Amino acid sequence: MFSLSELENDALIEIFNIGVGQAAASMSAIVNEAVHMSVPSVSFINRAEAARLLDGKSAEPAGAICGVSQHYEGAFSTEAILMFPEDKSLEIVRLMVGEAVSQKELTEMEQEAMCEIGNIILNSCVGTLANIFQRELQGSLPQYHVGTSDQILIASGSQADTVVLMLHIDFLLEKHQIHGYVAFVLDISALHDLKEQINLYIARAMGQA
């Protein structure tokens, strides 16, 4: 399985911490609550392992997952996917729109609202990568998916042999604790492009470029 050195891994976590901090600030403004997001680790796993990991985080027996995906091209090519257990998605939308909205209206708004949240979080993460790598990453419009984690990974273009970069995010709100995952689906070529960009960033940080 593809892996990074300790230095490369630390650099990638540092970059994602910056992006997640920006996403937290944007989310706080939307839900009108303090939002803290932590990035404890990143891991490179295959699609089947990623699906098992995500299914284990859902409170529903069927392992229903709500996902928002966007495709990015530029410094490297990737499908970025934000995923929550489906039982948490309406709770997140309720935080966005307030208590005055009926349950029926809330359900109707769910897809649009989740796409907005996905767009904010994914673009914060990917935008930070682009800025730090000093390269462009162009994103598509967000796409909304509901199903098992494997169905969402397949729907977003993941092949069985692709590698998934899993980024675990804890969403800590004043009154809620919501766990989400961001997955970056990369083929071997994109993985090596990512590794190259990380090493160029490290070289610049150390004054070697």
TrEMBL record:
Keywords: Chemotaxis. Transmembrane segments: none annotated. Residues 72-157 form the Chemotaxis phosphatase CheX-like domain. InterPro entries: CheC-like_sf, CheX-like_dom, FliN/MopA/SpaO. Gene3D superfamilies: CheC-like (3.40.1550.10). It comes from the Bacteria. GO terms for biological process: chemotaxis. Pfam families: CheX. The keyword Magnesium does not apply. PANTHER family: FLAGELLAR MOTOR SWITCH PROTEIN FLIN (PTHR43484:SF1), PTHR43484. This is Chemotaxis protein CheC.
